[in-house]
């Protein structure tokens, strides 16, 4: 039998939210990529911030340890293994290790009243698990800490080729931030210190007040986040096969983030309301810039390929499912109506989610980059990249 070996860049994560740690393995990185550990941990730190998060974020101080594939600060070409420890584990060892049996303390922690909007009921039925904690533990967005660590490595690879990934919050609970028409460096600087990751102080104050009110009401809110990727060559992704279209792959990655329900590129759904003349980006040519566009309404993609303009992608996050004033549910033991179980929870995680979105987008772009310019070492990739840029400049 012929075995098909997947040589592309890939990763897997493992670990439970209240288990000892999260683990990620990245396969397919080239050798000689310098890893900046401080920059990696900075991304994890950014994901923990944001107004509206619950107490868990005060317990955790996320840092990644690299336990494979890196020596002397550089990748060796071997799989890179990363772990992020859960500080909270020490409070959960009994709950995680002792089976809940009628009458014991752990039985009180068994989850049997599924939360609408979370994975509890579907996961319980699918995997035939009578303690819905077995679903919650893995469906928790704690897993996104591992994805941010992985995305931070992808970012570092992209940065070596001048490709930068940034993000910010567009709206929270219906409050929309004015569009920041700023160069990417200024956008990062202006939104970085904001507890809701917006550039405008007035919007920031309104969003904070709404999050506080929502929390006081025992409710939750979602929002829209935007990610921008600059410095891209033309031609990442491909039109020739459905699963090689990079916009499609980014869409999948974005909607895979916990609580994300939709995605759009450039003007997105607004394209439905305009004639073509106000949607398509006219093609220009100059000696110094080569082919470029008069606008970027399509968010950097045509035919599933980058067109050299920045990728602009937005994702919508629904409100957090766990409500302190819980919704109607059913007890899976008795089938009687009950309100859903309440677990410690965030009221709004939109600012944190914007960092997760940057990370998954960085990953998809890095994967497409290596598909096009791939080699076993950074030096080989650099040579392939330079050669392509020369070829494209002569086109
Ligand atoms: C950064 C982040 C933090 C989250 N925090 C919570 C939380 O505290 N409580 C909760 O119920 N859901 C939280 N969620 C959302 C759930 O993880 C998510 O709704 C759940 O896994 C079900 O998946 P789905 O919403 O994608 O269908 C969070 C999501 C993200 C991205
Ligand atoms: C742990 C994180 O987010 C968690 C995501 C989450 C959920 O249901 O998705 C529920 C909460 O879990 P806990 O009950 O442990 O506080 C959040 O804190 C994190 O982002 O690192």
TrEMBL record:
NCBIfam families: aroC, PRK05382.1
Organism whose genome encodes this protein: Cohnella xylanilytica
Lineage of origin: Bacteria, Bacillati, Bacillota, Bacilli, Bacillales
Binding site for FMN: 138-140, 258-259, 303, 318-322, 344
Protein name: Chorismate synthase
Pfam families, alphabetized: Chorismate_synt
Cofactor: FMNH2
SUPFAM superfamilies recorded: Chorismate synthase, AroC
Domain of life: Bacteria
Keyword Lipid biosynthesis in record: no
Subunit structure: Homotetramer.
Function recorded in the entry: This reaction introduces a second double bond into the aromatic ring system.
Residues given in the record as NADP(+) binding sites: 47, 53
Gene Ontology cellular-component terms listed: cytosol
